[in-house]
From TrEMBL:
The gene is kinE. The chain crosses the membrane at residues 26-47, 289-311. Keywords: ATP-binding, Kinase, Membrane, Nucleotide-binding, Phosphoprotein, Transferase, Transmembrane, Transmembrane helix, Two-component regulatory system. The keyword Phosphoprotein applies. It is an enzyme of class 2 (transferase). It catalyses: ATP + protein L-histidine = ADP + protein N-phospho-L-histidine. One of its GO terms (molecular function) is phosphorelay sensor kinase activity. InterPro entries: HATPase_C_sf (IPR036890), HATPase_dom (IPR003594), His_kinase_dom (IPR005467), HisK_dim/P_dom (IPR003661), HisK_dim/P_sf (IPR036097), Sig_transdc_His_kin-like_C (IPR004358). Its EC number is 2.7.13.3. This is histidine kinase. It holds the Pfam family HATPase_c. SUPFAM superfamilies: ATPase domain of HSP90 chaperone/DNA topoisomerase II/histidine kinase, Homodimeric domain of signal transducing histidine kinase.
Amino acid sequence: MPPSSAPETSAAPSGRPGLAQAERQFVRSVVAGLVLLGAVAVAGPLLSYRSDVAGARAEFQSRMTREARVYAEALGLHLKLLQTELLRVSEGVGPDVKRELPTEDLQDLTTPHAGLFHAGVMVLDAQGKLRWSDPPLDEAQAQDGFATRPWFQQVLARQTSVVDAIAPGASLFVVAVPVVRAGQTTAVLAGLLDTGTALPGGRPLSNDLELLVLNASGDLFLPSAPPSWANVSRASGELRDFIREGVRPPSLDAMPETFLTATPVPGTGLHLVLAADETALLSGLRDRFLVQLLVLALLQVGTLVLFTVHWRRVYGLFREVESRSARQEKMAALGSAASLIAHEVKNSLNGLKAATGLVSPEGEGGLVVRTLHGQIDRLAHLATSLLNFGKPPVVRRVDVNLSQLVRDVVEGLRSLPEAGEVRVDVDVPPDAAPLSCDPLLLTTALDNLVRNAMEATVAAKDLGKVTEPQVRVRARLDADAAVVTVEDNGGGPPPDVEGHLFEPFHTSKPKGIGLGLAMTRQALEHQGGQLTFERLPDGSRFLLHLPRVPRP
């Protein structure tokens, strides 16, 4: 921070003790607001995603339940057709089961391509003994009999058709119908079904669907190769619990997105279970949700970047305005004090000047008189600067001769104590066109520039940096502006001072107050001009630009 700002910096904590804390609170509030905005923005897609998933899942489960019913009805119709065909053939079975059989009709049921029971057909008597089969069963199966089989007992007791596993745990199912004569079941006609045959639902439906058909004991009728989660030892019991009570099988815990629905197969004791994988359904919703989050994240980052840029600009402008306001307050206070001091100093200087005017500058006390005159002029210049500081000058434009004005300024400074040590070169056009400006302000500006250059070169000589102090003043009139250049070989200002040359009360001179360049720039800017600085290898160059046509 420049030295000129030191008083402001030291005064800020006492004048505005809560400024830094207010800034921190503002930043925290903004960050909290952005976090809250981001949370609200993320909550919207998240709630929408959850709602979409719940709605899609409900619709998917409803559709799977309808499909399971359609499959069960299709399978029930097919099994009803088999039962009807067996009942038709059973009408040809006579009282003597061994001799009176419609052999030709029975063999038609097992025809390889046109038959309905490719696994075989058999006729049992009321005691469960095998009387006829196609293809023939082996002797072990024939001697064992079927009297104790649950499906055979059910046919005898109810005299109704039954679809069941031929034996507990077997994959071969039987469609059995009773042969009733005079109210008594004289025989049972049974068709055998293998799960590998082309039955409705016997083939895989799709990669995401599994269809299972099982009896009340948990024996699988379809498919021939059950899914892995139904192959565990407790799968039959889990499936029975699901059919009876709707309890999800624990074996599906590793597949949480698998949906199960169960429905009875009409006209049979079987149940159909449809398992569907929701992964394909939810993956699309999940991808869309991730895209929404990505777009939202990009928008949030973009908003944060734009807000940061805008906030930095607004905050910088706020700090600049605040600094300018504080500087103006300080300048106003200092200007009032400076004007009061300058009036008192000028009154004293007028008396001193009148007193020294009574003493001749020649003779034995001439050196003392000349020294007093130089110091009185220096103090008068300082008092004038203090008087003009802190109040905007009033511009009074008249036509002046730039060349003559420059020469008058240089001649007026030859009375300075440093003038005898400095060579001042003046290069101005001999006949210059009139320039519309305020001669007092322009004279003040040039006086400050040339005076500073002379003092800088003499100080450089005293330090041994130069042997011959030199100042060069050049003026020219361009088509649109008057340009005056003041150069010196005093080495230039220190690097840490260069950036604050035009700030009030900022100077590198031991006895300076830092108002000369600030007032020079102010005098030019009020006339529409400008003052710039360039560093030379051996010194400084100040360029004064003043437009020939006054700016509106």
